[in-house]
Design a protein that fits this description.
It contains 6 helices and 7 strands, in the order E-H-E-E-E-H-E-E-H-E-H-H-H. It is an alpha/beta fold. It has a single domain, classed as 3-Layer(aba) Sandwich (Rossmann fold). A 7-stranded mixed beta sheet has the order 2-3-4-1-5-7-6, sandwiched between helices. A hairpin with a 2-residue loop joins strand 3 and strand 4. The longest helix is centred in the C-terminal third of the chain and has 24 residues. The protein is globular and about 45 Å long.
Length: 203
């Protein structure tokens, strides 16, 4: 069974290293570790998506051992389900084989939490995916970005400063390791036990 890992963010250089894009950057870190590159969906020949004729507003990278697809939707956050759902259907990936990585304002910066399923938590990207998949029974990895003092919409679109970005790189490496463990085992409960214990000790 091919697994699908989705990182959430907004496309374009103006959104690079904003809080809303930590899902993109977590997948970038994983792709670097696995020695694979992200490509735009203009050419899918010879890949896991060969023959796919759905929406192509995404970038993807292919992992081979185990077989997996890393996906970064480029539809903007509130429409990412328009890409995720058709790709998942083409891969015949059930909900439990889809892991979504995204930012969470309800977690302190640097805090990571794995869950086998759950609600949207008010996150527009998760709401879009849940709606288009018709299910919320997919695993997710939440990356804490902290709650703002005032405007949440403004907060998630602000860029990390240099110090915050250095700290985030450590968090992204930990997130990448957790995703890779899930790809290798497919056991979200095992991953939760292993990594939550480690992350709590490091807190």
């Amino acid at each position: 069974m091919t697994r699908l890992v989705v990182g959430l963010g907004n496309p374009g250089p103006e959104y690079e290293w904003t809080r809303h894009n930590v899902g993109f950057h977590a997948l970038d870190r994983l792709a670097l570790h696995e020695g694979t590159l992200f490509r735009h969906a203009t050419d899918l020949r010879g890949t896991l998506l060969d023959g796919y004729d759905g929406p192509r507003a995404f970038r993807y990278a292919q992992c081979f051992d185990p077989a997996a697809l890393l996906l970064k939707p480029e539809t903007f956050m509130n429409r990412c389900g328009d890409v995720v759902a058709p790709v998942a259907r083409f891969l015949a990936a059930p909900a439990e084989a889809i892991l979504v990585v995204y930012d969470d304002i309800d977690l302190q910066p640097g805090v990571l939490r794995l869950r086998p399923h759950g609600g949207t938590g008010g996150h527009n990207g998760m709401a879009s995916i849940t709606d288009r998949l018709g299910s919320d029974r997919f695993p997710r990895l939440r990356v804490g970005i902290g709650r703002p003092a005032t405007d949440a919409a403004r907060h998630v679109l602000e860029k990390f400063d240099d110090e915050q970005r250095e700290e985030l790189l450590v968090t992204l490496a930990e997130a990448s390791e957790a995703v890779l463990d899930w790809l290798l085992t497919g056991d979200i409960d095992r991953c939760m036990t292993r990594f939550h214990s480690r992350w709590t000790q490091g807190a």
